[in-house]
Amino acid sequence: MKWINPVPYKEVTKISEVPRMVFCINYDNCLDRAIKHSWPGFSCQTCEAYEQKIMDAFEVRQDTLICIAIWEQSNKSSHLKRSRYA
Predict the structure, then answer these.
(1) 20, 79, 81 from 85: Cα distances, Å
(2) Contacts with 86 (C-beta within 8 Å, 6 or more apart), sequence order
(3) What pTM did the predictor assign?
(4) How far apart are CA 13 and CA 23, in angstroms?
(5) Neighbours of 71 (CB within 10 A)
(6) What pLDDT does residue 79 have?
(7) Domain boundaries, the chain
(8) How far is it, in rounded angstroms, from Cα 30 to Cα 25?
(9) Are 8 and 41 in contact (CB under 8 A)?
(10) Could you point out which of 21, 22, 39, 46 has its C-alpha 20 to 30 Å from the C-alpha of 86?
């Protein structure tokens, strides 16, 4: 059995900068670990436990919409913080 091995990573500003395997069955556990340790981000680059998550079209769409909503909320939050100090 291979162990999950997310590693701390810098905070990113663009989705395309995220070196993660979001369609891995272990992704949620890795995300939980990053949150628990207050990492600004995490990377899957050194992990050998990748296993493809099988999702139907509905699940892919739901997951995509959730990710977009979280990312948009994060951007709004960051913008509000920056505008307070401008």
Answers:
(1) 32, 10, 7
(2) none
(3) 0.60
(4) 20
(5) 13
(6) 53
(7) 1-54, 55-86
(8) 10
(9) yes
(10) 39
pLDDT tens string 9-63: 888 777 677 778 888 999 889 989 999 999 988 888 888 888 888 989 999 899 8
Which residue has tokens 């739901």? 62
pLDDT, residue 65, reads 93
Half-sphere exposure of 81 (CA within 13 A, CB side): 6
The DSSP bridge partners found for residue 42 are 8
- SS3 per-residue string spanning the chain: CCCCCCEEECCCCCHHHCCCCCCECCHHHHHHHHHHCCCCEEECCCCCCCCECCCCHHHHHHHHHHHHHHHHHHHHHHHHHHHHCC
What are the pLDDT digits (tens) for 63-74? 889 889 988 888
| pLDDT in the model for residue 3 | 83
